[in-house]
């Protein structure tokens, strides 16, 4: 048996949205057997939530990958973000938001017997690897799961995700997800 016959290690990929997942999946698929995990209780608008989830399901089908859907615990997210709603995007509310999502991902990885996880979050130019990694280290504490610190925005990752998303006609939102990020988007647009 040569190296090519070895089974690929399994990796849980936390998916923040379908467009971001495209280039991450492309980058990881040769090396890992991927299982996708959707968990985004930060998206508090129900229509926006349904729309993003539908696209994540559609793209998982296109990529022939399993998408595990976590039940959104909005109360847990709101509790984590309490007192931080005035923070700008990139501030302490985002750290708490990353922790909530990655903690859930770690529990699902444990349930599935998957030893490693990573997240599509780092493909965003607004989400530095160091912040996501710090949140992951806290979130995964006490679990058996290891976070793989991959900066997907490197090597043109974000641009590749835009290209792939256009090619698959995926809905790409123009705000991160929580209500403050939606308000920030509206302010940028002068609404
Ligand atoms: S801006 Fe994005 S990462 Fe930050 S708290 Fe809101 S949804 Fe979470």
Q: How does this model look, in words?
A:
The chain is α/β, with parallel strands linked by helices. It has one domain: HUPs (Rossmann fold, 3-Layer(aba) Sandwich). The chain contains seven helices and five strands. The protein has helices at residues 18-28, 46-62, 74-81, 92-112, 129-139, 157-167, 179-188, and strands at residues 10-15, 33-38, 67-69, 116-119, 146-147. α1 runs parallel beside α2, α1 packs across α6 (157-167) and α4 (92-112) crosses α5. The structure holds iron/sulfur cluster. Iron/sulfur cluster binds at residues 42, 89, 93-94, 97, 176-178, 181.
Tertiary shape: globular
- State the helical fraction: 40-55%
User: In the residues, how many domains can be counted?
Assistant: 1
The fourth-level CATH homologous superfamily is HUPs
The helix/strand series, from N terminus to C terminus, equals EHEHEHHEHEHH
Order of strands, main sheet, comes to: 3-2-1-4-5
Beta strand count: 5
Largest sheet: 5 strands, parallel
Number of helices: 7
Bound molecules: iron/sulfur cluster
What would you call the structural class?
A: alpha/beta
Give the name of the CATH architecture.
3-Layer(aba) Sandwich
**Unreliable residue stretches:** none
